[in-house]
Amino acid sequence: MESVKKLKNGLQQRDLSRREFLKFCTVVAGAMGLGPAFGPKIVEALTTGQRPPVLWLHFAECTGCTEAVLRTTSPWFDDLLFNSISLDYHETLMAAAGARVENILYHSADTYKGEFFCVVEGAIPTADGGIYGMVGGRTMLSMAQEICPKAKAIIAIGNCGSYGGLPAAAPNPTGAKGVKGALGSQLSVPVINIPGCPPNPVNFVGTLANYLLFNKLPSLDQFGRPLFAYGDRVHEKCPYSEDEGEDRCLEDYGCKGKRCYNNCPTVRFNDHTSWPVMAGHPCIGCSEPEFWDTMTPFYSEHDEDDDEYDDDEHNDDEHDGKEDDDD
Ligand code: FSX
Ligand code: F3S
Fold first, then answer.
1. DSSP 210
2. Which ligand is nearest to the CA of 253?
3. Ligand 2 closest atom vs CA 277
4. Is the beta carbon of 238 within 6 A of some atom in ligand 1?
5. Is the pLDDT of residue 318 over 50?
6. Which mutation among 232, 243, 244, 251 tests ligand 2's pocket best, with the greatest number of atoms within 8 A of CB?
7. pLDDT (0 to 100) of residue 74
8. What residue's CA is closest to ligand 1, atom 3?
9. Residue 112: per-residue pLDDT
10. 184 near 146, Cβ under 8 Å?
């Protein structure tokens, strides 16, 4: 088959081990709730055909999200990223800088209006007209206001881009917010949140693969997170729970796995090597809105009376790409 030949050549050219790459795509397929047989289909979707344009914006953050996406499964993950999407703007990765590059950003947003994915990494300071976050003499707020509404969809990567994260922790003097909170209800472009501090790259790739395979965005929960990745609480798949006959549960040490929705125990990090609880550290709830305020102190047991929402509410509010304001 011509497409298989093309794929094989492409992988060889890029020195990718087909076995390794297939393994990764099978993990992505599993995370998306698809069977292992979808692994080769995901390989194909990610390496052949259209490469959607992506403009990646950096706002108030630590850049750990980019690090997580690009380095976790190095050397081939970054290669995959560059060959699956047309990454037209990314401040951390671009060699060039300055006014010419900024012009490319605004020019690309106009050229690919309605077609590009806008990835937003980091919170957007909104207090006092947004003056606490500037890039090239322009507020992050005004950049987001100009570029985001022109996108086909916005992918907020990390807790900061999704809900404000650390920059929005109380007392939040800069008025930092996630992209949907900062741009408000007039934003008609769908926002997909991939929270985590940092998020798992598999969940980001799964969102892209969903689009490339099925030509649609994944179903989201009421906090704008893809249900394929954030449909279950960490606790539900944790191998250390009492239900599993284990006595290594870290709840006494502050584990927030019962209040946090993410697929860490099944997908894990660093090539499926480990995840926080497996490494002996309690879950800190980093994929929940306002986790710096609601999950702290991280090493103390939680009072269940403080819970703001329950499991039924989480799973019943499934919808596609449109959620209520999160702030
Ligand atoms: Fe936030 Fe991303 Fe935490 Fe850092 O850039 S989600 S502070 S790991 O990295 O935005
Ligand atoms: Fe696991 Fe116990 Fe946390 S079961 S997710 S270690 S609360």
1. H
2. 2
3. 6
4. no
5. no
6. 251
7. 44
8. 197
9. 95
10. no
Mean of the per-residue pLDDT values for the chain? 85
pLDDT tens across 150-180, in order? 999 999 999 999 999 999 999 999 999 999 9
Question: Could you report the per-residue pLDDT of 51-75, keeping only the tens digit for each?
Answer: 789 999 999 999 999 988 876 554 4
- Residue 240: strand, helix, or coil: coil
Name the H helices within 188-326: 201-214, 227-230, 264-267, 291-294, 311-316
- How does DSSP assign 139-150, residue by residue? EHHHHHHHHGGG
- Nearest C-alpha to atom 4 of ligand 2 is from which residue? 241
Q: Check if the beta carbon of residue 229 is closer than 8 Å to that of residue 193.
A: no
pLDDT value at position 221?
Answer: 97
Which ligand 2 atom is at minimum distance from the Cα of 257? Answer: 5
| Peptide bond connecting 218 to the previous residue in cis, omega within 30 degrees of 0 | no
Q: Helix, strand or coil for residue 70?
A: helix
The residue behind tokens 């990390």 is 158
Atom 2 of ligand 1, residue of closest alpha carbon: 65
pLDDT at 14 exceeding the cut of 60: no
How close is the Cα of 197 to the center of ligand 1, in Å? 5
Both tokens of residue 125? Answer: 């300071």
- Give the residue among 296, 234, 241, 300 at the shortest CA–CA distance from 269: 234
pLDDT band at 314, cuts 50/70/90?
A: low
Q: What span, in angstroms and rounded, lies between the C-alpha atoms of 277 and 264? A: 9
- Please determine, for residue 310, whether its predicted confidence score (pLDDT) is greater than 60: no
Tokens of 324: 């209520």
- Ligand 2 is surrounded, with C-beta below 6 A, by 234-235, 238, 240-241, 249-251, 255, 257-258, 277, 283
Distance in angstroms (rounded) separating the CA atoms of residues 129 and 275: 39
